[in-house]
Amino acid sequence: MGLPWYRVHTVVINDPGRLLAVHLMHTALVAGWAGSMALYELAIFDPSDPVLNPMWRQGMFVMPFMARLGVTGSWGGWSITGETGVDPGFWSFEGVAAAHIIFSGLLFLAAIWHWTFWDLEIWQDPRTGEPALDLPKIFGIHLLLAGLGCFGFGAFHLTGVFGPGMWVSDAYGLSGHLEPVQPSWGPEGFNPFNPGGIVAHHIAAGIVGIIAGIFHITSRPPERLYKALRMGNIETVLASAIAAVFFAAFIVAGTMWYGAAATPVELFGPTRFQWDQSYFKTEINRRVQTALDNGATKAEAYAAIPEKLAFYDYVGNSPAKGGLFRVGPMVNGDGLPTSWIGHISFTDKEGRDLQVRRLPNFFENFPVVLEDAQGVVRADIPFRRAEAKYSFEQTGVTATIYGGALAGQTFTDPADVKRLARKAQLGEGFEFDREKYHSDGTFRSSPRGWFTFGHAVFALLFFFGHIWHGARTLYRDVFAGIDPDLGEQVEFGLFAKLGDRTTRRLPEGYVPPAGSTLR
Predict the structure, then answer these.
(1) Which side of the chain, N or C, has fewer Cβ within a 10 Å radius?
(2) Angle between helices 135-152 and 234-258 (to 10 degrees)
(3) Distances (CA, A) of 64 to 56, 57, 179, 335, 416
(4) What pLDDT was estimated at residue 495?
(5) Residue 47: which region, alpha, beta or left (left: phi > 0; alpha: psi -120 to 50)?
(6) CB atoms within 10 A of CB 294
(7) DSSP 358
(8) What does residue 510 show for φ and ψ, rounded to 5 degrees?
(9) 477, 484 contact by CB (below 8 A)
(10) Any idea what DSSP says for residue 166?
């Protein structure tokens, strides 16, 4: 027959039972992986410090997705928000993980059953009575079911009618919690950081899907459209499905990387652009200035800064910092943060307040340069001491710490000031324990970075897969692979002797037309 090695899907041509079996097995593998990975993450997760040792620092990948949909507690009595003695009931991390594993096992058995008892007479060609997949009707059924699921998720789960709502927080990721969310139907619903837009879009998309599904179930496509889009070809279904998948993959990669209401900072870590745009530094400065305007001292203003906000303003938490070739969670790199030492403020002998120029995302090393309020360089750590003009010793730079563990201390020794300047290069200063996780001192990417990279890569692969299979479908007669008359020759169970048209198995009661070679 000359079948290429990659034409493994021929076994499901016009075969409802085995087509169903392969989809059941795929779902079983996905559900089984999700449940197993959730249990593994629970086994290694340390819930003791949700501020300085959150799940995203520990490399958790599945747990953040569970948490954003309402699963935040464990049968161990802890919650990701730091509470103890909680009783989440069945809807705990362990309960949901076990449900996925049990569901995976049932799907596995169902896949085996449908692969074994493949000869299902679900659809038949009304002209011949032979088995045939009614692909337009199948599309309508899937669209209806997807629409019902989408509508139900938005109208019941997210709104709190029959569910916990979703994870909601403030703009700086400080007050995250579960909350029922009402839909936002106005223009504000298109703000990607508005949780109400997620609810509204699920409800709207679900309604459209339900209506479109009913339409495709109850109506037949015109003959010209049916032939033009090759609606009778199973590879058309594959090409169309891949299009939906790569589109969704591009969308989630973008919303994860740039941030959205669906990817909270508390669960996935800061975005790379929040470091680039000094997002958290700007908020810290705003709060300090507001406190100063209200009569507080500088020490009191920084002491009021939440440790969580200060921790976000640290370059090691950027998802772009670790690159793609250092595996493991972020705590394997810089270590376990133990405390915020406080905000480090520098002053030269002229009394000017100086700030350290911060480390860009894609740099491992960067010159230590101190600027005044106008951006003029006033001090640095020179490469060549003999040519130094702005060294800390020459400019008399001192460091004073406000807030945090070292609040109120002033350092004048140049060696200490240089050490603090290198720490300030990375944002707010923190002390790290490198022993607990055997950390090696090099940055790691956060789950946000890995998710984005993985989905962007798969989106590109699926995009080219869509082009490939779409071209094979539309130009089947000129493409290498299955020619138009080969399908029935390789269809499983259609002939008593594979490929021998004279041994076709006919439906019971079917009478071949006069002159036919069929018997």
Answers:
(1) C
(2) 30
(3) 8, 11, 16, 21, 39
(4) 77
(5) alpha
(6) 9
(7) P
(8) -80, 130
(9) yes
(10) E
Question: What are the tens digits of pLDDT across the range 233-248?
Answer: 888 888 999 999 999 9
Residue 296 buriedness (CB in 10 A; 0-12 / 13-18 / 19+): middle
Burial 467-502 (b: 16+ CB within 10 A, else e): eebbebbbeeeeeeebeeebeebbbbebbeeeeeee
> Sorting pLDDT into bands at 50, 70 and 90, what band is 503?
confident
Check: CB of residue 455 under 8 Å from CB of residue 253.
yes
- Tell me if residue 10 falls in helix, strand or coil: helix
Range name among 104-118, 276-290, 420-434, 494-508 with the lowest pLDDT average: 494-508
Alpha carbon distances (Å) from 175 to 168, 178, 229: 8, 10, 51
Q: What 3-state DSSP class applies to 511?
A: coil
Spatial separation of the C-alpha atoms in residues 353 and 347, rounded to whole Å: 5
- Predicted confidence (pLDDT) per residue in 336-371, tens digit: 999 999 999 999 999 999 999 999 988 888 999 999
Alpha helices, DSSP H only, in 259-383?
A: 265-268, 272-276, 279-293, 298-303, 307-312
The answer to whether the CB of 152 falls within 8 A of the CB of 225 is: no
Residue 1: which pLDDT band, with cuts at 50, 70 and 90?
very low
pLDDT of residue 479: 61
Q: Which two tokens stand for residue 223?
A: 């003959």
Average of per-residue pLDDT across 432-455 = 94
Calculate ∠ Cα 94-145-223, nearest 5°: 150
Specify the amino acid at residue 315.
V
Contact in structure between 352 and 366 (CB atoms under 8 Å): no
* Helical (H) or strand (E) element with 170: none
**Residue 314 bridge partners (DSSP):** 427
Share of the chain above pLDDT 90, in %: 73
Contacts of 257-263 with CB under 8 Å at 24 or more apart are 257/319, 257/448, 257/452, 258/192, 259/192, 259/193, 260/192, 260/193, 261/168, 261/192, 261/193, 261/194, 261/195, 261/197, 261/198, 262/68, 262/198, 263/68, 263/448
Q: What is the pLDDT of residue 119?
A: 76
How far from 3 is each of 10, 100, 209, 224, 388, CA to CA, in Å?
A: 9, 38, 38, 30, 74
pLDDT at 214 over 50: yes
Tokens 């460091």 belong to: 399
Q: Which of 198, 220, 84, 70 is nearest to 139 (CA)?
A: 220
User: Would you give the DSSP letter of residue 505?
Assistant: P
